[in-house]
Amino acid sequence: xxxxxxxxxxxxxxxxxxxxxxxxxxxxxxxxxxxxxxxxxxxxxxxxxxxxxxxxxxxxxxxxxxxxxxxxxxxxxxxxxxxxxxxxxxxxxxxxxxxxxxxxxxxxxxxxxxxxxxxxxxxxxxxxxxxxxxxxxxxxxxxxxxxxxxxxxxxxxxxxxxxxxxxxxxxxxxxxxxxxxxxxxxxxxxxxxxxxxxxxxxxxxxxxxxxxxxxxxxxxxxxxxxxxxxxxxxxxxxxxxxxxxxxxxxxxxxxxxxxxxxxxxxxxxxxxxxxxxxxxxxxxxxxxxxxxxxxxxxxxxxxxxxxxxxxxxxxxxxxxxxxxxxxxxxxxxxxxx
Length: 337
Description:
By secondary structure, this protein is an alpha/beta fold. It has helices at 38-45, 93-96, 136-155, 170-181, 193-203, 215-222, 238-243, 268-273, 286-297, 303-306, 316-323, and strands at 2-8, 11-16, 26-36, 60-68, 80-83, 86-87, 107-108, 120-124, 128-130, 162-166, 185-190, 207-210, 228-233, 248-256, 277-280, 307-312, 332-336. The strands form four sheets. Strands 3, 4, 5, 8, 9, 16 and 17 form a seven-stranded mixed beta sheet that branches. A six-stranded parallel beta sheet has the order 12-11-10-13-14-15, with helices on both faces. Helix 5 links the parallel strand 11 and strand 12 (207-210).
């Protein structure tokens, strides 16, 4: 079978090996769709945290079950499945409290261990959710949307709230659409007008703010001076991350979804005056995957607009560099097998 390895920054290599064998609690998957996310782009560019080379990328996966081990009962050959790509230990303090998404020994497929950029993959069945009603393209966007669902659950967003989402990339757009599905009003903030227009036209966001303007004043105007009760950063940009509290209402919540590799600085009197709740959101849990699956089954998410670029497996190597260019207009690229 064929697989693609990121050997070093800016260097992919197509290789071949024998199909994997499976254990009694594993399933053999035929990979059908692979979503490309910021983690993959950063790894290819050489600036991804928690990463080492060589590595087989790919953790946003839609797949078909080819075979299952002797002890498997929850999936069967022929099922369409989404892969929850987080390998947690099950016994650390986080896992014991149900927070498997931030396990002390967390390993993510395609980041810490080899992922799904290969024709076949063997995984523990505990990572699989059968969803035969959805297409493989839809299955491959569940994981990034689940990250957004987890962030919204962390913030306990309710209907009627006004929320700011910084960053109109895939994670930010997912947060926006899911927040709308929960009855919140969304204000999208980004520095690229093309992305803001996409959020308005394709995701249905009612308010957009370009950071070239007086962003805080614009949000104040939209919210009648009250600001947003929940703010989400989906950029990972240091300047953006540090600006978040300025959009937050008194008594509000600020959720850091994007990841920066450096230190962050907040003015203590400003965050103290608002009795700010500042929290991080990492990965997702089963509950978040189930929430996204339910939304996708209703047809409330515009998958066809969200997936802007598709290529075949071997074509991906020649296309990847172009996806790093903001002018390419990539929201979600996907490899189809």
